[in-house]
């Protein structure tokens, strides 16, 4: 599936891309289903209808579900069976999940339905696309998925909307009964038939959608951290010699080399680095400065692995049972979220460590015993002013929270469905905590940015690099104030956070360096 034009994504039979997921989830791209996909869907549906007409039990077609699969369901009860699985499984609780997550989940389920492996009718696929295009977003709750047998409760709430039941958010942001929203947008509710309820619920779509968006966000944040690390090195009058490519070539981790190259490009032309040390010249900078590329680089390599897993999953058709090309309908365990859950946890660990080293650099900038001539806490009049003292407290609290969020969810498992589903992935939980961790990482980098830019400006008489000067101009233009007497600090931190989150930091640096890795 490729983006055919700006604002439009065409769903075929061969999977999708991360860019397409983000286009639909975050930017409201219109979804079209190809004729090829509709033909494949119709062909697989015929297989299901042929099986439904036979007396032999087929899971999800003529049997109950999970531990209740031992019961054969007569033809007159099968529509009720599919309707009931959606209603009973729509059992989520807690806060509403973000709109972009629900749109990603719906789009990825649509992708699998369009693969021709699930056995639903074309009308189910077309109606799912119509919901996305109308901007109708089912109300999905935080809790309800164990990451195995699919993201069951979240997907069930989406299927409920497809049936015209439950609640959904309209394009104007108002939550209304789904039936009203469908009627207002002339979308006909679907009356589910054999296997269709099951096919709408049985996938890793929620955790995968969150993984795809997290990968995009973390990529931007790692580059942002390379920039703030370079600014901190500059503000601390550190040495850029440790960034030389020949040093990183002898330990050839790709991410490390990329981060070192990014920092070196940001520092090019600096009048602060390595030339203005105090009475006791430094042979080596502290680890938080000298090892910045190694830590950020390890995060980059972890991210590359996560993207590989995501790409494989985006090419998959996750359902149980599945319709195979030769017409067989087979049960399987492809709905188990372990591959996705693991990398979600890996990314949370990488994010926590990236935040940890950034906080150590900030603390160094504020400590007059280690900052090589900067005023205590970068205050205007130390003692009268506290400067950025408590900004570092906030940063430390965020880092501590991220360390807790780095505890893996995927090593946990609570058996369910009367021990039929006796091992689960907890991938949805891994994804939810990763999103929280990336929000925290954004704030941690923002605090380092505030401290590093203020410190560079306090190095009067010394000229920063052109890239650093560009960042300084952009940060100040964004409303973040520079050195001076104490003021209400929270608004500055919020503006810095928005600047980092929007990509403004990377954009400002790249205006001088060109594209960073």
Automatic annotation (TrEMBL):
Enzyme Commission number, as recorded: 4.3.1.3
Record pathway: Amino-acid degradation; L-histidine degradation into L-glutamate; N-formimidoyl-L-glutamate from L-histidine: step 1/3
Database matches in InterPro entries: Aromatic_Lyase (IPR001106), Fumarase/histidase_N (IPR024083), HutH (IPR005921), L-Aspartase-like (IPR008948), Phe/His_NH3-lyase_AS (IPR022313)
Pfam families: Lyase_aromatic
Modifications made to the protein after synthesis: Contains an active site 4-methylidene-imidazol-5-one (MIO), which is formed autocatalytically by cyclization and dehydration of residues Cys-Ser-Gly.
2,3-didehydroalanine (Ser), modified sites: 149
Keyword Ion transport attached: no
Main location, first listed in the record: cytoplasm
Species for this entry: Streptomyces caatingaensis
Enzyme class: lyase
Record keyword Cytoplasm present: yes
GO CC terms of this entry: cytoplasm
Record localization: Cytoplasm
Record-level Gene Ontology MF annotations: histidine ammonia-lyase activity; phenylalanine ammonia-lyase activity
Single biological process term from Gene Ontology: cinnamic acid biosynthetic process
Family: Belongs to the PAL/histidase family.
Keywords (A to Z) from UniProt: Cytoplasm, Histidine metabolism, Lyase
Protein name (Swiss-Prot/TrEMBL): Histidine ammonia-lyase
Sites of the 5-imidazolinone (Ala-Gly) crosslink: 148-150
Gene3D superfamilies listed in its UniProt record: Fumarase/aspartase (Central domain) (1.20.200.10), Fumarase/aspartase (N-terminal domain) (1.10.275.10)
Catalysed reaction, written as an equation: L-histidine = trans-urocanate + NH4(+)
